[in-house]
TrEMBL record:
The keyword Cytoplasm does not apply. Belongs to the Skp family. It comes from Flavobacterium fragile. Residues 1-19 form the signal peptide. This is OmpH family outer membrane protein. Residues 226-249, 260-281, 290-337 have a biased composition (Basic and acidic residues). Pfam families: OmpH (PF03938). Residues 226-337 are annotated as: Disordered. Residues 37-104 form a coiled coil. Keywords: Coiled coil, Signal.
Amino acid sequence: MKKLLFILALISVTSFAQTARGVRIGYIDMEYILEKVPDYADALNQLEQKAQKWKQEIEVKRIEITKLKDALKTERVLLTKELIEEREEEIAISEQELLDYQEKRFGPKGDLIIQKSVLVKPIQDQIFTIVQDVAEQRKYDFIFDKSSDLTMLFAAQKYDISDFVVRKLSASQKREEMSKKQFKALEAKEALEESLEENPAFTERQKILDEKKAARAKLIEERKLANEKKKADAAEKRKKMIEERDAKKNGTVIENNSSEENKNNSDEVKKNTKAIEKENTTTKPTAAEIRQKAIDDRNKKLEDRKKALDEKKKKIAEDKEAAKKAKEQKTETENKN
């Protein structure tokens, strides 16, 4: 509305000049002109490919967040309050990162708008230069852009100079064919650099997660080996104790050697036990280990409960059987009497 009033004001200012000569007014359709420019169509195609790639990345991240939510929903009953809060915080961080990435790519000041503006600006500058030349050559007083947010209620076709601007622009681009090739080479170079440094925020986060997973797997493997060694040492100790006992029964004296070996084994077991305890105290358990421990404890409780139930059922059956036998014996005794 303000722009329309501005136009009316300009026309009113020049109304006095109309008595001397007619005011010449023309207009262009910027969207129509850009559609006729091959470079602009190629640039838009490249930008659309980038946008599709960004959309795919957003969809992949959204699927990952959905999986995290489903996993938390499934395992919630098995997790402690602290673990639930940790998982919810991780999901919230991922969702915020996704929103930030969407804003970065498709927001009002995002990469899509910025790159489109960068692609359009050189062509628009050429068009504006040509329009100024045309205005000077044909003595136009005003030239408006029909595709802008300026409201044009009516515009006669004879005042449309868009096709003339397109012809002038094509001729100008033919003269600059060499610079066009250089521009394409520069675009290819930028595309290659972008593919090499694709999505740095997600790449860095994925790297951190991979490092955490590797450290967790290494810690689990080390604890597994330590437990296996501890079991092997305990089995060896029991074996030696059995051999020593059998030797004493048979009258063979190996007490000194066996006691010395037992002492060495005991020292080694104590040393390994201290090392494991030190590792357990210095290494903070991860979320996966705490979750696995909770699952193991729950399974153990279920097994103990099942075992107690089986023993109770067995005792009841035995009591029933004993009562039945006692009743039969009582019946036999009464019959004899």
